[in-house]
Design goal:
83% helix
């Protein structure tokens, strides 16, 4: 247990040091815009729009493509729920990790 605490403390100290460096660094405007667009690209509306574009202009393979994308999304959700149940959390581990990194950072 002490070894795990030591390793965790090492990781935490390095993370805090990097966080303090990044908080003092004023990023260039293009980096700020890039980060905003990268965040917006992860939102669902972009993926729904891409699905509509594939549906309209996808050609003869559009339905298998959308089926594969839907299956991948569903498999990710199921896996997240299974991991969450195995770890005994209300949310899956991945959801909890993503929530923490997106909202608490």
């Amino acid at each position: 247990m002490a070894m795990a605490r030591t390793v965790w403390g090492f990781i935490e100290r390095r993370d805090h040091r990097l966080m303090r460096k990044m908080n003092r660094w004023p990023p260039p405007r293009w980096v700020r815009y890039w980060m905003i667009w990268a965040t917006r690209a992860g939102d669902s509306w972009l993926w729904y729009g891409l699905g509509v574009m594939i549906l309209l202009f996808g050609g003869p393979r559009r339905f298998p493509t959308l089926g594969a994308a839907g299956f991948a999304a569903a498999a990710g959700i199921v896996l997240d729920v299974i991991i969450g149940a195995a770890l005994g959390t209300g949310l899956g581990y991945l959801s909890l990790f993503l929530f923490a990194t997106a909202h608490l950072a």
